[in-house]
Amino acid sequence: xxxxxxxxxxxxxxxxxxxxxxxxxxxxxxxxxxxxxxxxxxxxxxxxxxxxxxxxxxxxxxxxxxxxxxxxxxxxxxxxxxxxxxxxxxxxxxxxxxxxxxxxxxxxxxxxxxxxxxxxxxxxxxxxxxxxxxxxxxxxxxxxxxxxxxxxxxxxxxxxxxxxxxxxxxxxxxxxxxxxxxxxxxxxxxxxxxxxxxxxxxxxxxxxxxxxxxxxxxxxxxxxxxxxxxxxxxxxxxxxxxxxxxxxxxxxxxxxxxxxxxxxxxxxxxxxxxxxxxxxxxxxxxxxxxxxxxxxxxxxxxxxxxxxxxxxxxxxxxxxxxxxxxxxxxxxxxxxxxxxxxxxxxxxxxxxxxx
Amino acid sequence: xxxxxxxxxxxxxxxxxxxxxxxxxxxxxxxxxxxxxxxxxxxxxxxxxxxxxxxxxxxxxxxxxxxxxxxxxxxxxxxxxxxxxxxxxxxxxxxxxxxxxxxxxxxxxxxxxxxxxxxxxxxxxxxxxxxxxxxxxxxxxxxxxxxxxxxxxxxxxxxxxxxxxxxxxxxxxxxxxxxxxxxxxxxxxxxxxxxxxxxxxxxxxxxxxxxxxxxxxxxxxxxxxxxxxxxxxxxxxxxxxxxxxxxxxxxxxxxxxxxxxxxxxxxxxxxxxxxxxxxxxxxxxxxxxxxxxxxxxxxxxxxxxxxxxxxxxxxxxxxxxxxxxxxxxxxxxxxxxxxxxxxxxxxxxxxxxxxxxxxxxxxxxxxxxxxxxxxxxxxxxxxxxxxxxxxxxxxxxxxxxxxxxxxxxxxxxxxxxxxxxxxxxxxxxxxxxxxxxxxxxxxxxxxxxxxxxxxxxxxxxxxxxxxxx
Lengths: 355, 469
Hints:
- The complex is a heterodimer.
- Chain A is mainly α.
- Chain A has helices at 2-54, 68-84, 87-99, 102-109, 115-128, 134-140, 145-158, 161-170, 180-187, 191-199, 207-219, 225-232, 238-250, 254-263, 269-281, 288-296, 316-328, 332-341, 347-352.
- In chain B, strands 3-4-5-2-1-6-11-8-12-7 form a ten-stranded mixed beta sheet, with helices on both faces. Chain B has a two-stranded antiparallel sheet with strand order 9-10.
- The longest helix of chain B has 37 residues, at 2-38.
């Protein structure tokens, strides 16, 4: 027993010595790396200068260092600058990256067995705004979720509408909070392809993706948006009708306001609230009248099964959802709405109601 | 015979700690690598400009925080995110917290509707800043931190709430990092915790850390090393297992709807942050949704560590009372397969190696002395065993420094690294025993039903900066 503990003690002492040595070596390595990075930056500057003065042909993969680790450092140096740059400087760095042949390394890395290495390569391709071979990108749609997302972004930039449908269907969106990357992605899609995507809306499996496409099409006044909205007005799915509210809020057309009036009487409370919010956001002036009417109507505030039993004025809880846009909206529509709700909003009312 | 059994009990307990910690370290290393590689920073630009990105409400409960509050709020308002509001809840402060805020941000009474989704105490008024409309200040009667957090959650309309301490300093991109699992993680996310670092010794400007360095105080240095081990190994290891049960009160982002559904923060406990996270886990399992709670490895929040023994003792006492209370409240989950890895692995681990560890460690010290006095144990064995335990602690602390330097490189200067390595050497000689005694006191006080918070003696960021400079 005693001897066993002594052996463990010796092993631990060796481990601590190794860790101390590791800390020292790590410090030295990181210090050396800093110097290497600085040198790599200087090399990148020199290559950029050569490209500017003698043209893009003056730089090729022959300029790469022989040692693989030096090549990796140079690639990292270009990439870190690429990441921090924008506009013309970014495209210049991207051109240098391609001329040095690093893109081919990235394509090669997409075949790696380690998904983290594949993701690493895909992130570089994404930032380079490169157009990789179609089969590589479509293959990425069956990969790790993050790789799928980046592939979908690349397809949004350059792919066909059919590929885009496939890419959007490959995304897994279990929560509403995952929608922003889809909007970002759709922003990169041009009007022509967005119109085609809208036409094949029903082939999109996920309701959230369909909603995003419809809202984006409405915001960009894509032809065919109104028809797509009209067809879905009587949908039995509440989420589709909520999507209609979002789309109508962005669709600059009196017909959209009429649809929102209509949705103020929807049997679903959430749809009614979204319709009211959409009317507040809408730039069409005729949104006012039905909104003011809705605020005064006790049926509008029905939010829970219990409330459906009686006919009463809104409770503070029910008013809660309305507060958001009344506080933030600056339009005259919202101001009138605020006057209607003002008496319910004071802190003293809240305290009086504290149980 | 009895003596041998006791000897073997302590030895087995020690071996079990070594084994489980080694497994956690292994898991943590994989998790850190995975999290670092999957953070899609290149999409930040889009998230920053995308108007549909989820708004975030930063909830800042403030009680007697006149030293920090203005610089903290300035820092929160400056965070890199396109749509966030700051809700400061003045929880009946006895000092000039509210006055400082009113003067610095030109507060005006407003009529914002305050819902009653979570129970809370009486509100005296809601104010909005004229200089920055993203700042809301709720002035309420004192009801404790949990009550103040609940009030803040009631006031904000954002779907995501970031609960922070008033003395927390968030990194400029903290919200972007915290929100990313909500945007990209499949399977749904309920909460995301950020790794907290000690700010003592660092230089600050306008609520931001501009230069990170190690403080002169040994107590603060010990805590830096301790935080590193806890966050990098403990929490990241459990994260890998899918069962992190602590999100530091200093920085956590929660799905507001889930917090409301769970009933918000509990007023009756002093460990409200851990209690909420365990309750969220419990609800997820009971409802069958199993959305995740995630801990991020990168340093995104900085907090002031106590630099005097009395404050440290109160803090550790409170933390252990919180842990005891949470584990007791949710004892139903313990070893219950219905709660998956949380019930079968994480909670039993917390009970055995966290909750009762102070009792066993102090008991071990007493037993060592007793056995030596009565000759049950030879001096050689006692000394060698104590040395083995000590060196294990040192190697773990040094390893956490190595991992931190490699992964995040927070302290770049050799002098800082040397100071931390020295602190790692002496961490288990006195400091550890002191904190263990504080935890034991906390456990006893919990048994007597004591629920007070105690006061935190703070230096204040501005003073800390002056000291540092």
